[in-house]
Write a structure and sequence with these properties.
With 659 residues, the protein is of the alpha+beta class. The chain has 4 domains: 4-89, GIY-YIG endonuclease, CATH 3.40.1440.10; 257-383, 2-Layer Sandwich (Nucleotidyltransferase, domain 5); 390-593, UvrC, RNAse H endonuclease domain (Nucleotidyltransferase, domain 5, 2-Layer Sandwich); 601-658, 5' to 3' exonuclease, C-terminal subdomain (DNA polymerase, domain 1, Orthogonal Bundle). It contains 20 helices and 18 strands. It has helices at 39-46, 55-63, 75-89, 137-147, 158-167, 172-175, 189-203, 207-223, 227-246, 297-319, 339-350, 362-388, 390-403, 456-476, 521-534, 567-597, 608-618, 621-626, 629-633, 640-658; strands at 19-24, 30-36, 66-71, 105-108, 117-120, 129-131, 257-264, 268-277, 280-290, 329-331, 355-357, 412-421, 424-434, 437-438, 444-447, 514-518, 540-545, 550-552. Strands 12, 13, 14, 15, 16, 17 and 18 form a 7-stranded mixed sheet that branches. The protein has a 5-stranded mixed sheet with strand order 9-8-7-10-11. GO terms for molecular function: DNA binding; excinuclease ABC activity. Residues 16-95 form the GIY-YIG domain. The UvrABC repair system catalyzes the recognition and processing of DNA lesions. UvrC both incises the 5' and 3' sides of the lesion. The N-terminal half is responsible for the 3' incision and the C-terminal half is responsible for the 5' incision.
Length: 659
């Protein structure tokens, strides 16, 4: 591990101008590329105190052995140079927007004498026009099946095309009029190319012109009494309209735009893009990327725009693609800090004005919300795939055992999280994972006692104390065995944890192999102290700090840093996030109940027990307010005088709200 001070440039030698910098390892490989408005300010931040750096940034600067920079004149030049260097060096510490799968496209081989339509995956080639990407190959085949009736172009391979040319007989598609059969000379090369050009125009968005042309030809055929041709054109028109229906109109103004959305956590982010051309969704794609350094949504947007559209422009140029890779509008969740520079750079790629903006209202805002839901769903599916993989779960438990130096793999893990708002309505959650999967039937919730006097550390200690006192009570409070049983001495207890009445395990009967607390060193030390005081020595404790994703062990001065690709870290994060979700849900429920019941505060003769009885009987304050004196007096424990006080108080509150 290198010491950054050994290669730190003298501060006065770093220019304050905008530029692009790159870190290299001892072998000269570039491991990180970045840009900055002020090179001096940005580079000095990397050589601050190592303990204050993000763990991944710390790993990068300690892996590097040299830093170099290039001064540029404008931010647009910086964007271009950063993109070129990332593409050239493929640095390991840079975020890269690679597809999480190879999306299929519809390829049209315009360089051939008889162009072919086919499904394609792989690198772009010159002389081939591409449409898509599509989410599934069957979507391309379904679209082709509809459109070949109108545009009967060749779809067969070169071998099939030559074989049917030799035997002088077309294939099945030629007999059912879904291919113009250029292999046997039914149409000339120029006529077949015209069919393919019309097909490409239709997929490029010039749909209205094609529909109007078919309508005009159908009307002319009808006027000339060519009813068979008119019927065929009518069927072709229907096929075109069915193909259009599959590409739903999402922007009524016919806008060309890409809509981008993100779903993220501390280590990963999912990106979804909808490509809208002529108001219709023409393609969709998604990525799941690793965050190699602290990255907010603004930075994700900036890096996505610079890398993705630079790559798409290069692909279009390599493939002689007529389709414009850069749309007129890019709709994003937040504007990046370098929006003007990005717009100027994109305008140069497109050749006309490009705008980056956040949709505020109407169809575009609704579409952005749809893309955001897709991003969240893709992110959730990505996490579920990892969580559902038995091999990954086994590797995660093994990694946790090795990194935390446990005696055995933690097959049962419990996690505690605290939730409150400025010290009010303090609650805690306890979630249970067994074999890397949640066991929701054993989740528990706690109300923190004396919450006003406690902070998170004391709250964690209280929950640990209460949970493990219950464990000791439930496993030790068993009847002594009869004399002469031969198993244990008379007077001893048997720790079974089984309820003798139901035959089922008691609520807190099983201890975890590992107890995780949401927090850092203070929370971990507090939990470990409680376990030691109770005499429990076979439960390991660790803490997961949210900000830096560090794992803390009791009494250690430094945290354990797990690799960002570690399955063990991913499992600990998932457990921590589940505990947080469960705690937040309970906290909101308690807070809602508190706000609901507050309407009954101050009613003479109505204490907490009667208030709870009233809410339990009617179900809500709204229903209590709708009840009359007799109905309230019918609740057990209520008299007529108290009922009249409740009605008077609630009705007075209603009148005050109206006033």
């Amino acid at each position: 591990m290198a010491d950054p001070s050994t290669y730190r440039p003298a501060t006065g030698t770093i220019p304050e101008s905008p530029g692009v910098y790159r870190f290299s390892d001892p072998r000269g490989r570039v491991i990180y590329v970045g840009k900055a408005k002020s090179l001096r300010q940005r580079l000095n931040s990397y050589f601050a105190d190592l303990s204050g750096l993000h763990p991944r940034t710390r790993q990068m600067v300690t892996t590097a052995a040299k830093v170099e920079w290039t001064v540029v004149g404008t931010e647009v030049e910086a964007l271009q140079l950063e993109y070129n260097w990332i593409k050239e060096y493929d640095p390991r510490f840079n975020v890269r927007y690679r597809d999480d799968k190879s999306y299929p496209v519809l390829a049209v081989t315009m360089h051939e004498e008889y162009p072919r339509l086919h499904v394609y995956r792989g690198p772009r080639r010159k002389g081939v026009r591409y449409f898509g990407p599509y989410a599934h190959a069957w979507a391309i085949r379904e679209t082709l099946d509809l459109l070949l009736r109108v545009f009967p172009a060749r779809t067969c391979s070169t071998g099939v095309f030559k074989r049917h040319g030799q035997i002088g007989r077309p294939c099945l598609l030629g007999y059912i009029d879904k291919c113009s059969a250029p292999c046997v000379g039914t149409v000339t090369a120029d006529e077949h190319r015209d069919i393919v050009e019309n097909f490409s125009d239709f997929l490029s968005g010039r749909t209205d012109r094609m529909v109007r042309q078919l309508e005009r030809e159908m009307a002319e055929a009808s006027e000339n009494l060519e009813f068979e041709r008119a019927a065929r054109l009518r069927d072709d028109l229907g096929a075109l309209r069915r193909a259009l229906e599959k590409q739903a109109v999402v922007l009524g103004d016919g806008t060309d735009a890409d809509v981008v959305a993100f779903a993220e956590d501390e280590l990963e982010a999912a990106v979804q893009v909808f490509h809208v051309r002529g108001g219709r969704v023409r393609g969709q794609r998604g990525w799941v990327i690793d965050k190699v350094e602290p990255t907010d949504t603004e930075q994700l947007v900036e890096r996505f725009v610079s890398q993705f559209y630079g790559e798409q422009h290069a692909l279009a140029g390599a493939a002689d693609d007529a389709a414009q890779p850069v749309p007129k509008e890019i709709l994003v969740p937040v504007l990046p800090s370098d929006t003007p520079a990005l717009e100027r750079w994109l305008t140069g790629l497109r050749g006309s004005k490009v705008q980056i903006r956040v949709p505020q209202r109407g169809d575009k805002r609704d579409l952005a919300a749809t893309v955001a839901r897709n991003a969240k769903e893709a992110f959730a599916q990505h996490k579920l795939r990892r969580a559902g993989d038995l091999t990954a779960r086994s590797a995660a438990l093994q990694e946790i055992q090795e990194n935390l130096e446990l005696d055995q793999a933690p097959l049962r893990i419990e996690c505690i999280d605290i939730s409150h708002v400025q010290g009010t309505n303090v609650v805690a959650s306890l979630v249970v994972f067994e074999d890397g999967l949640p066991r929701k039937s054993e989740y528990r919730r706690f109300e923190i006692r004396d919450a006003a006097q406690e902070g998170d550390v004391a709250s964690i200690a209280e929950v640990v104390r209460r949970r493990f006192r219950r464990y000791l009570a439930e496993t030790a409070d068993e009847p002594a065995p009869t004399e002469g049983s031969g198993e244990v001495a008379p007077g001893d207890t048997v720790r079974t944890g089984i309820d003798p009445e139901t035959g089922r395990p008691k609520k807190f009967a099983y201890p975890p192999n590992l107890l995780v607390v949401d927090g850092a060193k203070p929370q971990v030390d507090a939990a470990a102290a409680e376990l030691a005081e109770l005499g429990i020595t076979d439960v390991a404790v660790c803490g997961l700090a949210k900000r830096l994703e560090e794992v803390w062990l009791p009494h250690d001065t430094d945290p354990v840093i797990l690799s960002r690709t570690s399955e063990g870290l991913y499992l600990l994060q998932r457990i921590r996030d589940e505990a947080h979700r469960f705690a937040i849900t309970y906290h909101r429920q308690r807070r809602s109940q508190g706000m609901t019941a507050s309407a009954l505060d101050g009613v003479p003769g109505l204490g907490p027990a009667r208030k709870q009885a009233l809410l339990k009987h009617f179900g809500s304050v709204r229903k209590v307010r709708a009840a009359d004196v007799d109905e309230i007096a019918g609740v057990p424990g209520f008299g007529r005088r108290t009922a009249e006080s409740v009605v008077a108080a609630l009705h007075a509150g209603t009148e005050g709200e109206k006033a």
